[in-house]
């Protein structure tokens, strides 16, 4: 039986506990995983993830199969749709919202259809020519007409997760073996880490596998004894060798099929211009090759295909993109006086323009797929 004094003491203890909990929440020191203390390995068990992606000038995150838009302060679903030229009902339905719902500053919404991305500055000559940056809109136009779900993950594209009823940011992070903080940073979640049913989240890209667990060390005399290897109990049998006279005759050398290859079969593409390669391919710094050629030299189509893009970068260098069989694209940067139009069919070796003037004059040539992944052009030219 509680006395009035004991009831008061219990109330004081509970009140102090509530105040302490409130202080932890406000100072962000609360251990949401309830794993703090000695031997806590929850952070170490999570995979390291890449840096948070940065939207373009229009607040758009573009990936091969989808795009997301970042809400501005005071946005509603309808106002964001109007700014991006989208149907408010479609944008709301895609994100399990209503057109009149207010959006939190920085909140990411999945777009029901692709919109034009903002072009970024280019560096040509002595720097990187990143077509994904300088002609994002152009490559979006050259991409597949209808996005389909990939049969396997696309390198560089984060996975997406549609939040189901009862899920939290923490349970989703554990499902994909990433930290809840990384998940929150990548999706611009609020301080309360709240997610809603039907919301689409992007999963941070892991840059390294989760570390192996520490081996369990048992004290001497404990645990199972190490089994003795068979060779310690019984020696291996002597190796039986065959006499040299019984060895089979050497097989004749295989014919060199390269000598029989025609020009068309030996190379997927033909050189767009003849000249010295002054800068080679590098996945990070130069996603193509630079071929020195005099200004006015004819630029030729590397293979038959359809002209998908006629454009130019921020320095006025002409860009031509041709789609070929097998979902391959060839990109030509530094083209003046284009001799073809968008949508035109071109044949292998057909003139598509001239090398633009420069110091030095050169053509930048790339090979990509419709997911914008670049490849070393020399593997297609040799």
From TrEMBL:
**Its Gene Ontology molecular function terms?**
metalloendopeptidase activity
The annotated region (Disordered) lies at 207-266
**Source species, please?**
Tabrizicola piscis
Top-rank taxon: Bacteria
Keyword set includes Signal:
yes
Q: Where is the LysM domain?
A: 159-203
Any idea what this protein is called?
LysM peptidoglycan-binding domain-containing protein
Keywords, A to Z, come to:
Signal
């Amino acid at each position: 039986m509680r006395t009035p004094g004991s009831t008061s003491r219990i109330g004081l203890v509970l009140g102090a506990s509530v105040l302490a909990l409130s202080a932890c929440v406000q100072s962000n020191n609360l251990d949401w995983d309830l794993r703090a203390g000695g031997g806590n390995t929850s952070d170490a068990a999570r995979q390291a993830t890449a840096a948070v992606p940065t939207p373009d000038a229009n607040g758009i995150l573009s990936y091969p199969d989808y795009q997301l838009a970042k809400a501005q302060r005071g946005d509603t679903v309808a106002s964001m749709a109007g700014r991006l030229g989208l149907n408010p009902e479609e944008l709301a339905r895609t994100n399990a919202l209503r057109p009149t719902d207010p959006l939190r500053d920085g909140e990411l919404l999945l777009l029901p259809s692709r919109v034009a991305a903002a072009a970024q500055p280019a560096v040509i000559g002595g720097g990187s020519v990143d077509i994904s940056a300088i002609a994002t809109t152009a490559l979006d136009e050259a991409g597949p007409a209808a996005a389909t779900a990939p049969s396997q993950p696309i390198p560089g594209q984060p996975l997406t997760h549609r939040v189901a009823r009862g899920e939290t940011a923490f349970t989703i992070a554990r499902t994909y073996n990433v930290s809840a903080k990384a998940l929150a940073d990548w999706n611009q979640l609020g301080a309360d880490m709240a997610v809603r049913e039907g919301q689409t989240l992007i999963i941070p890209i892991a840059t390294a596998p989760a570390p192996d667990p520490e081996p369990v060390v048992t004290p001497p005399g404990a645990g199972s004894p190490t089994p003795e290897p068979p060779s310690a109990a019984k020696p291996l049998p002597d190796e039986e060798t065959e006499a040299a006279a019984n060895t089979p005759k050497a097989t004749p050398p295989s014919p060199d099929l390269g000598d029989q290859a025609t020009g068309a079969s030996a190379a997927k593409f033909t050189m767009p211009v003849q000249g010295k390669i002054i800068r080679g391919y590098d996945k990070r710094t130069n996603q193509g090759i630079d071929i020195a050629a005099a200004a006015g030299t004819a630029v030729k189509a590397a293979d038959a295909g359809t002209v998908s893009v006629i454009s130019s970068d921020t320095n006025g260098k002409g860009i031509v993109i041709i789609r070929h069989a097998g979902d391959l694209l060839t990109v030509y940067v530094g083209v003046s006086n284009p001799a073809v139009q968008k949508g035109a069919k071109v044949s292998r070796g057909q003139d598509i323009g001239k090398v633009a003037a420069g110091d030095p004059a050169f053509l930048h040539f790339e090979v990509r797929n419709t997911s914008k992944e670049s490849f070393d052009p020399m593997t297609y030219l040799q």
